[in-house]
Amino acid sequence: MFRAVKLAALLLLLWLLVAVEAVAQSGYQVVQLAQAGTISGMVKWSGPLPRIPAFPIDKDPQVCDPDSHKTRDLDRLIVGPQNGVANTVVFLKDISHGKAMDIPEARRSLDQKLCRYEPHILLVAENGPLQLKSSDAVLHTVHMDGAASYNLPFPFTNRPVARTMPAAGLVNVRCNGGHSWMNAEILVVRHPYYAVTDENGKFELTNVPPGQYQIVAWHEGWKLDREEAAFDVLTQRKIRRPVFSDPKTWEKQVTVSPDQTAVVNFVLGDK
Questions:
Q1: Paired strand residues for 144
Q2: Which residues contact 117 (CB under 8 A, 6 or more apart)?
Q3: Helix, strand or coil, per DSSP, at residue 66
Q4: Which of 181, 189, 185 shows the shortest CA–CA distance to 172?
Q5: Could you read off the pLDDT of 151-168 as tens digits, one per residue?
Q6: Could you please report the per-residue DSSP string of 213-252?
Q7: How far is residue 88's CA from residue 84's CA, in Å, rounded to a whole number?
Q8: Nearest one of 136, 143, 137 to 183, comparing CA atoms
């Protein structure tokens, strides 16, 4: 009994040391907050919308295309009726302390549904878990490259798995199961002051320590750079896969006052 208690204490101490080391490496510290503020705003599109080509749905149409659209939007630029830009990541740059991680579960859980990755933009804490599953009764894969490298098959529906995201940065996601239009992005982050704009282009960062910050709007990019040859891992047939241009960023300065809301708006465009 004593040996078991001693072992548990040693394991707890080891976990605490790992947690402290992770915080030290990230340069971010969780602190008690008083009179914290909020940053809210919108990301809007200006100018004509660029033409973004759709990709043919040429595999598993009974699952991927139940409404017989024949092609699939690549989900790279979503602009609402009031010109709000969805799926833009807004975050604070070089913040050193503040609230604990509070990323919504929906942003750190990936589903494969109707041959789309949902959500299209994910946020996962560095050294935190990403939950994955497939709702589709076809073979999918989640192939990641960038800050994390995994290639996970999903031959069965609704069987969740989890993987740790070991390093901060951008992770590109695609399917090697022949569904070449499927794409998503994961941002692995070191602090919680990240938000993804909704369908109206709105965002909000809460519990921000008073101070002056650089705030960044990040968009994955919407231009189709080229198409590359690839293979369906199941059939080994050749397929075309879209390759996109680099992400885009916009920066502003913002001052957060105690118990106040600072408003910051961004305007995106094709120039």
A1: 173
A2: 110, 111, 142, 173, 182, 183, 184
A3: coil
A4: 185
A5: 999 999 999 999 999 999
A6: EEEEEEE----EEEEEEEE-TTT--EEEEEEEPPPEEEEE
A7: 10
A8: 143
